[in-house]
Design brief:
GO biological process, one term: proteolysis
InterPro entries: Peptidase_S8/S53_dom, Peptidase_S8/S53_dom_sf, Peptidase_S8_His-AS, Peptidase_S8_Ser-AS, Peptidase_S8_subtilisin-like, Peptidase_S8_subtilisin-rel, Peptidase_S8A_DPH-A, S8_Vpr-like
CATH architecture of the largest domain: 3-Layer(aba) Sandwich
Oligomer: single chain
Keywords: Hydrolase, Protease, Serine protease
Largest sheet: 10 strands, mixed
CATH topology of the largest domain: Rossmann fold
Number of domains: 5
Structural class: mainly beta
Shape: globular
Pfam family, one: Peptidase_S8
Number of helices: 15
Helix content: 10-25%
Organism: Streptomyces globisporus
CATH class of the largest domain: Alpha Beta
Number of strands: 73
């Protein structure tokens, strides 16, 4: 059993003029060296193992949000926390910002440890073409970039393997391997609102304090920032420190802008502080983790007192490198990190990373009336339920400096000139950074803990709980007067296990520190809130004293107790505020405890084929209805047993036991209990001795397996999860259904695969549908009479080409399945024997292949879909042709030019083949121009395929759209240039196909693109689109024998024109113009339509 090079269907009806680097698909190289191809939506559509890894089976799991493709030898490292799960999260890796970040190779952050760290570093650096980007001393790590062709070498350097080949541990000296991920700017009457003018009046303006703004750069020429920036450095992928986005300048001016351009109206919070401008986000607002880490270390080395990070990304339960660095630098260097909570809205558990770090002063956003912003991310923190954010600050409609001509200035405008008004926790965060600078000036000896304590203690409460606002909105005028601070700034009691009748009350100490010179007596009060936002039961949160005295320069403690026995049947997160009042001061401390919902211990036992606890096994539980966090749970298996605590609910349990613990290629037992109702302590047993073999028998017993892709889908209440495998054949695979027949959920199982028979034929099998239980073993025999025969003639007018047909299966309960293809010489015929059971439909796709890339993958020169998906009848033979002339524009119900609102765009293939198969080929140049009422409105360098829509005014007008596309004769000597134009009238409307047409020439042309020279023939001519049939007002056609230098008019008679074929080695070109009865026109010129021979 081994993975195959496989593919899955792209989006239905997608037209493309194929580019080598842009075929609506992207190639992702995993850290193992294996490659996954994804479509434009991030869906995996192909997999190819790295050389030497052909025997490693690959598991695929996915739900509506994420799809993971995990080779069997990586699974244990992920579960143990040594390997970042994001390295195999195809949805995450295929996001545009990650594709852009990884364009130069696979980017990792490698952490080292122990005495062998130096040797491990050397081994990593010697792995192929690996280059070290940055040394990240705070984590004892370094960022590395490995050419994708050398990924197998870096995998070998990072891992240890057993003698038989299964990699199970990180190499000596390697601590952890992270994806060098991507973060983005957290962008979605403020200074006075937080009390800054009162602080200025008291003499605190930030003088002598350094604020590092790590962002998109800072415009040092802006009057508000002139002289403010004392150092700047670029850590991003951009070419210099210039702020072309505007985000960094806006943030910097909120923190420490002078307001010079506005006469002081838009002065920042700490106008006398100095700025360190680290550009860690590129000119699109994105930056990689290693660049941000390097910026953080640089800022600290430059003497930053406060670091502002108005950026972030999704948080996970694990500690990522940015979180680790924030905590370490805060503890060791005393630097305060003010970090945006994120703009992911009002759902629970949406605070991003690195704002999720313990030491971060995490900032949410409110408006000028202290109403929490809808976009402001909420806690609790993913994984442990801790309180985040810590505070809020103004972040709605904030006006601050902006570089003229920057991205933000263009999008929202400058009002007034040099300023822009925007919203986001990005804007809230520098208010806090500036406030911290005022405090730092007042207390030069204060470190991050004291600054964070004073700011969180002195907030103004809003009508929200701690997971929405932390302790409240900052009040720097109160903070500068604050001599009493609380430690910690928030109290997390963690999770108290269900049931709660026997809970033991949990006490935590709140320490009050008096930084003043006089004793202060504090009156204490604890106010709790239940998960529904109502008051917590009396006695749920209690204090050990209701009054304490804090000596000057010293501390006093009080116990805060959470008694989770109270609360009745209402489980969930309870929060509280402890408010201490005295000496003219108020100190607010947030607290929270997770009163665990009804939950139980689940024990998963794995038994090998020998009856002993399995040495190498893995299990995944999927939880339906998970409201936050990942629904995929991966308990670590030790001595064949995994234990995990989970909430009451419905789960899918998927398990694999490998026959040989030292070699995953020797066979596997795939077992699953598709419905597990956890209503009590539960033990699941997966006994490989009960599994049965999987076998598929074909008419040709010698057929060679290319792909076997079994899977099953469980769905309930509109939520579905898929588990499956990719391997070359079912040999060595056994399956087992565990538990009773399922009820209450929908269960479907599918078996798909491809086997070759001879040099130019293959069996493509896809069967399956709804079942009551999964198959324990599978034995399916296919006879020739049960299959449909499809003969596909594949053309090529260029010599020495290769091509491939891919048959994509579509089963009703699966959607698009995986498929594979086998290349062969062109022109040629491929015979497909397709299964017909279970109402399977097949979508056929053709690729003309180009030279191999550096990793041995073929490039794509042309791609055509052979019509819509279709069902075929058993025992019947079908004939199809693809990639033959005449190539030209196609207009039909699916393809044309579209107006929607104020945009005109197109999905109109200019190089559909002679059979009307939509698609296209690699082009060398293209140009599309739109005219409105005779004046040029815009142009782009694409054919009419929707890459870049044209923005148009709303009113009715006459339009003309012209386009041309050229390609190399080395790819295809036919239709090397196509020109087309359309005129029509249009005004603002909803989605509507515009009245465009085209003319298609369909002579009988050989699969080599040639015809008998000099022969007089009839060429069918047909109008498609708005002018078709009785709507044709006029039709004019011309031919050329000299590449379009001169044209000869030919009259259409009975839908045909009569022409003389070109001489041997020469070509004929066609031209046509059609006008419909409403006056819309369409013209086309096709150069070198076919050749004589």
């Amino acid at each position: 059993m081994a993975p195959a090079a496989v593919a899955a269907p792209g989006p239905k009806g997608a037209a493309s003029d194929v580019r080598a680097q842009d075929r609506d698909v992207r190639q992702l190289t995993l850290v193992t060296g294996d490659r996954v191809t994804v479509d434009g939506k991030g869906k995996p559509v192909a997999f190819r193992p790295a050389k030497g890894r052909e025997g490693i089976p690959v598991q695929r799991v996915g739900d509506k949000d994420h799809t993971l493709v995990i080779p069997a030898d990586a699974h244990k490292l992920i579960v143990s926390g040594k390997l970042d799960r994001r390295l195999f999260d195809i949805t995450e890796l295929s996001r545009p910002e990650n594709l852009r970040a990884q364009k130069d190779g696979l980017k990792l952050i490698v952490g080292y440890r122990g005495k062998q760290a130096a040797a491990a570093k050397a081994q990593v650096r010697d792995a192929g073409g690996t280059e070290v980007g940055r040394s990240l001393k705070s984590l004892n790590a370094e960022s590395v970039t490995t050419p994708t062709s050398d990924a197998p070498a870096i995998w070998k350097a990072l891992t240890n393997r057993s003698a038989a080949g299964e990699r199970v541990t990180t190499a000596a000296g390697i601590d952890r391997v992270w994806l060098d991920g991507v973060r983005r700017a957290s962008l979605d009457k403020s200074v006075a609102q937080i009390g800054a003018p009162a602080a200025w009046k008291a003499g605190f303006t930030g003088k002598g304090v350094k604020i590092a703004v790590l962002d998109t750069g800072t415009d040092t020429t802006h009057p508000d920032l002139k002289g403010q920036v004392i150092a700047e450095k670029n850590f991003s992928a951009a070419k210099d420190t210039k702020d072309r986005v505007g985000h960094g300048t806006h943030v910097a001016s909120i923190a420490a802008g002078t307001g010079a351009k506005s006469g002081g109206k838009f002065k920042g919070v700490a106008p006398d502080a100095k700025l360190l401008a680290g550009k860690v986000l590129d000119d699109d607002g994105y930056g990689d983790d290693s660049g941000i880490l390097a910026g953080m270390e640089w800022a600290v080395a430059q003497g930053a007192d406060i670091v502002n990070l108005s950026l972030g990304g999704p948080d996970t339960p694990e500690v990522d490198p940015l979180e680790a660095a924030v905590d370490k630098l805060s503890a060791e260097k005393g630097v305060l990190f003010a970090i945006a909570a994120g703009n992911e809205g009002d759902a629970a558990g949406t605070v991003g990373s690195p704002g999720s770090a313990d030491a971060a002063l995490t900032v949410g956003a409110v408006d000028d009336k202290d109403v929490l912003a809808e976009f402001s991310s909420r806690g609790p923190r993913i994984g442990d339920g801790a309180v985040k954010p810590d505070v809020t600050a103004p972040g709605v409609d904030t006006t601050a400096a902006i570089p003229s001509g920057s991205l933000i200035a263009r999008e929202v405008g400058e009002k007034p000139a040099g300023y822009a008004t925007i919203s986001g926790t990005s804007m809230a965060t520098p208010h806090v950074a500036g406030a911290a600078a005022l405090l730092k000036q007042q207390h030069p000896d204060w470190k991050s803990a004291e600054l964070k304590g004073a700011l969180t203690a002195s907030t103004k409460p809003g009508a929200y709980n701690p997971f929405q606002q932390g302790s409240g909105r900052i009040q720097v005028d109160r903070a500068i007067a604050q001599t009493i601070v609380a430690e910690p700034v928030s109290v997390s009691f963690g999770v108290q296990q269900w049931p709660h009748t026997d809970d033991t009350p949990v006490a935590k100490k709140v320490t009050y520190r008096n930084l003043g010179t006089s004793d202060v007596t504090l009156d204490l009060k604890a106010t709790g809130t239940d998960p529904q936002g109502k008051p917590a039961p009396a006695g749920f949160f209690t204090l050990g004293a209701d009054r304490i005295t804090v000596p000057a320069g010293s501390t006093a403690e009080v116990a805060l107790t959470a008694d989770t026995r109270l609360g009745g049947t209402l489980d969930g997160t309870y929060s509280a505020y402890v408010v201490a009042t005295g000496g003219g001061q108020t100190v607010r401390t947030a607290a929270a405890v997770e009163r665990e919902v009804e939950s139980y211990d689940v024990t998963v036992k794995h038994i090998g084929r020998d009856g002993r606890p399995a040495v190498h096994a893995e299990s995944t539980l999927f939880r339906f209805g998970a409201e936050s966090g990942s629904p995929f749970l991966n308990p670590q298996v030790t001595d064949g047993v995994a234990k995990i605590r989970v909430p009451k609910g419905t789960y899918v349990a998927n398990s694999t036991v490998y026959q040989d613990p030292d070699d995953v290629t020797k066979g596997a037992d795939w077992m699953a209990q598709p419905k597990v109702s956890v209503t009590r302590a539960t033990t699941l047993t997966f006994d490989a001795r009960k599994a049965k073999p999987v076998k598929v028998t074909l008419p040709d017993a010698k057929a060679k397996g290319q792909l076997f892709a079994p899977d099953y889908v469980v769905e309930t209440a509109g939520e579905a999860v898929t588990f499956g495998w990719l391997m070359d054949s079912p040999a060595g695979l056994r399956t087992l259904h565990v538990g009773p027949q399922v009820t209450g959920v929908s269960l479907a199982q599918h078996w798909t695969g491809t086997w070759t028979t001879g040099a130019s034929a293959e069996y493509d099998i896809a069967v399956g549908g709804k079942v009551k239980q999964l198959a324990t073993g599978y034995d399916r025999k296919f006879t020739a009479a049960q299959l449909a025969k499809v003969k596909v003639g594949m053309g090529s007018a260029a010599p020495k080409k290769k091509g491939a047909i891919t048959a994509f299966p579509f089963l009703a309960t699966q959607g698009g399945g995986w498929a594979t293809s086998v290349e062969q010489k062109l022109p040629g015929t491929r015979t497909l024997y397709l299964s017909t059971a279970d109402k399977v439909a097949w979508g056929l796709d053709f690729d003309q292949l180009g030279p191999l890339d550096a990793e041995g993958w073929p490039t794509y020169e042309a791609n055509y879909g052979l019509g819509d998906e279709a069902t075929y009848k058993a025992g019947k033979t079908y004939t199809k042709t693809v990639n033959t002339g005449v190539f030209g524009p196609l207009v039909d119900k699916n393809y044309g030019i579209v107006r929607e609102g104020d945009e005109i765009t197109g999905a109109l293939p200019l190089l559909a083949d002679g059979q009307g198969n939509a698609g296209g080929m690699l082009f060398t140049s293209a140009k599309t121009v739109l005219y409105r009422n005779g004046k040029k409105l815009g142009q782009n360098g694409d054919p009419v395929t929707g890459y870049e829509p044209f923005k148009v005014p709303a009113g009715s007008a006459d339009y003309k759209l012209t386009t041309t596309v050229k390609h190399s004769a080395k790819v295809n000597p036919l239709s090397t240039q196509v020109d087309a134009s359309w005129t029509f009238r249009s005004k603002k409307t909803g989605f509507a196909m515009l009245p465009v047409s085209t003319v298609r020439f369909t002579p009988a042309v050989g699969t080599d693109g040639r015809v008998k020279a000099g022969k007089t023939v009839s060429v069918p001519v047909k109008v498609h689109g708005a002018a078709a049939g009785k709507n044709t007002k006029s039709l004019k056609t011309h031919v050329s024998y000299n590449g379009g230098k001169t044209w000869k008019k030919i009259t259409v008679k009975k839908g045909k024109i009569t022409v003389k074929n070109p001489a041997k080695g020469k070509a004929i070109s066609f031209s046509a113009t059609v006008t419909d009865k409403k006056g819309n026109t369409s013209s086309v010129k096709i150069y070198n339509a076919y050749f004589g021979k």
